[in-house]
Design goal:
Chain lengths: ~290, ~280
């Protein structure tokens, strides 16, 4: 490490000069937008006109209103649930790929990622076709005779939001889980088997500690995707499936109350941040594989 | 028996992943504007109608223009940021890196809202450039991070040798550093393109009157869109899968001579590093 006295002033000045563009970028596109959002959240609107006085009214509104609180809680729970299920499915798939497949491995991995290249909105929309009252699933069940009348809980409900969010999250969770599992050297598993560990024990003591960070990352990606999505609830959620994101977007659009929308965003950001920090703590890995 | 159950579960996961995609393709061939069963007959009219659908075509070209700009700027500026951060002390570079990455990890609509507020405040009218800037906030960090990771693994003696031999910084970058990170930059560009072209959540807040392709689809869904959307998406999807397969094959063939030795080296290193 060189200390200040060893490095000539001109060199140090030059080093900082090189970083100016980075700092300008951060100022213009990270700091200012976030500070402005914070400031906006403390302002208010009266009949569409911005009142530039600081107050905490918006936050009080968000946190004391039963409807917004219920929806916030429901959103967080739905996002956690969908992300957990997606992570579990993706982890199982990734483990299967790593353990059982050699020749077809690349293809299997590629096939999980391919849906990411299909328009997100269309993937969401396809669930409308599948789950609707005269949708593919209902029609098939009716035709086969499993049910006598269409299941109506499937679309425009929390169920459809949950299924769709799980569906769109799987590829992200898979990439994270797979890249963690794939890096675990076979020799470690052989060593644990040689030392007499049962497969279950080997999983608990070798595989899981070395891959749970990847699982944590996958979960975080999936959770962020779910919690920030207002398209899915709008498309397949109906009234029942309203999520916090829809409320925020309404403030931006119909209700035209940007300050309240900003306050809601910050509440969501705080909740999300706290949750992800907890996940990062819990999934910290003991071993480092490079 | 157990392995049979495993295979069934594994394959049904793929069924879960592909059933919706197949549905899209199948209904692109259904002769009805209502996307529901019963099946009303086979038709190609949704495919044939695409060229005459003006708004759809203009949203496609507009979206492509935006994405090309986003990819180009992310690649150039992102690489530049990575290079300038790479030379710094770990502390400074970690703080700045984290700051640049923030927009990429906040929920999309929070980012969209904050940018909409900021752009309105700065007096930028919603349109192509607000979309490009907005998308850059989360695509550029991806390029920067990927390139930075690669740069940190390069052998520093090559750069030192080049500088010792009298090459300027620029020449060193162009002739010594860039050739080593080129494939990383290309991979990052591909990723950036997919992130940009399909983005709706942030773009929604920043667009003017001209929609990008996904925004066009979004507007259509309110009226229950026609299977022309299914048709165009089927085409785009098939094309991109073909491209991916070709790209993977090409990359694998190019990388192959190194691939084996480098994985072997990596796994040996991994063995020694586990504690």
């Amino acid at each position: 490490m060189s200390t200040a006295s060893e490095v000539p002033f001109a060199v140090r000045a030059r080093q900082w000069l090189v970083l100016t563009p980075v700092m300008l970028w951060i100022a213009a596109l990270v700091l200012i937008p976030n500070i402005l959002m914070l400031v906006y959240s403390l302002w208010s609107t009266e009949e569409g006109v911005l009142r530039r006085e600081f107050s905490l009214t918006n936050y009080v509104d968000v946190l004391t209103n039963d409807v917004t609180l219920t929806i916030l809680l429901r959103t967080l729970l739905t996002a956690i649930g969908a992300a957990l299920l997606a992570t579990a499915i993706a982890y199982a798939m990734a483990w299967f790929v790593v353990k059982k497949l050699t020749r077809w491995r690349m293809l299997a991995v590629l096939l999980v990622i391919v849906p990411l290249w299909i328009s997100y909105l269309v993937r969401v929309y396809s669930w409308k076709i599948l789950l609707g009252e005269s949708g593919v699933i209902n029609s098939t069940f009716l035709a086969v005779g499993i049910i006598d009348e269409p299941l109506s809980f499937m679309l425009y409900s929390r169920f459809s939001v949950f299924v769709t969010l799980t569906y769109v999250s799987i590829p992200f969770a898979f990439v994270a889980a797979y890249s963690a599992l794939e890096r675990i050297p076979k020799s470690l598993l052989e060593a644990s088997a040689d030392s007499g560990a049962t497969p279950g024990r080997a999983f608990r003591t070798v595989v899981w500690p070395l891959s749970r960070q990847g699982v944590g990352i996958g979960f975080a990606l999936a959770f962020l995707l779910c919690v920030g999505d207002y398209l899915t609830p709008a498309m397949v959620g109906g009234l029942q499936g309203t999520m916090f994101g829809s409320l925020i977007v309404n403030q931006f659009g119909l209700a035209n109350n940007w300050p309240l929308g900003a306050a809601m965003s910050i509440v969501l950001l705080a909740a999300t941040g706290a949750l992800l920090a907890a996940v990062a703590r819990a999934s910290r890995s003991e071993g480092i594989l490079e | 028996m157990r392995s049979f159950v495993g295979w069934v579960a594994f394959l049904s996961a793929y069924l879960f992943l592909y059933a919706p995609l197949l549905t899209i393709g199948v209904f692109a061939l259904n002769d009805s504007t209502v996307q529901a069963l019963p099946w009303s007959g086979f038709t190609l009219r949704w495919f044939l109608g695409i060229p005459d659908n003006g708004p759809l075509i203009s949203s496609l070209t507009f979206g492509l223009t935006v994405s090309v700009l986003v990819v180009t700027i992310s690649a150039v500026v992102g690489t530049f940021f990575a290079v300038s951060l790479n030379g710094r002390g770990r502390r400074t570079s970690n703080v700045l890196t984290a700051a640049v990455v923030i927009p990429a990890i906040v929920p999309g609509m929070v980012l969209g809202l904050s940018l909409a507020i900021a752009f309105r405040y700065m007096g930028l009218a919603p349109g192509m450039w607000t979309i490009v800037l907005g998308q850059l906030t989360f695509t550029l960090p991806v390029v920067m991070l990927v390139v930075l990771t690669r740069l940190r693994r390069l052998d520093p003696s090559l750069v030192q040798a080049s500088m010792d031999l009298g090459a300027t910084r620029w020449r060193t970058f162009w002739h010594v550093v860039f050739p080593q990170i080129r494939s990383t930059v290309v991979a990052a560009c591909l990723l950036t393109f997919t992130l940009s072209f399909d983005e709706v959540i942030v773009t929604f807040f920043l667009a003017g009157t001209q929609p990008t392709f996904p925004l066009f689809i979004w507007a259509q869904t309110r009226f229950g869109f026609t299977p022309e959307i299914n048709a165009i998406v089927t085409i785009i999807g098939t094309l991109s899968v073909v491209l991916i397969v070709i790209a993977t094959a090409v990359i694998e063939r190019q990388v192959d001579p190194y691939a084996q030795s480098s994985t072997r080296r990596r796994s040996r290193r991994a063995d020694t590093k586990v504690h």
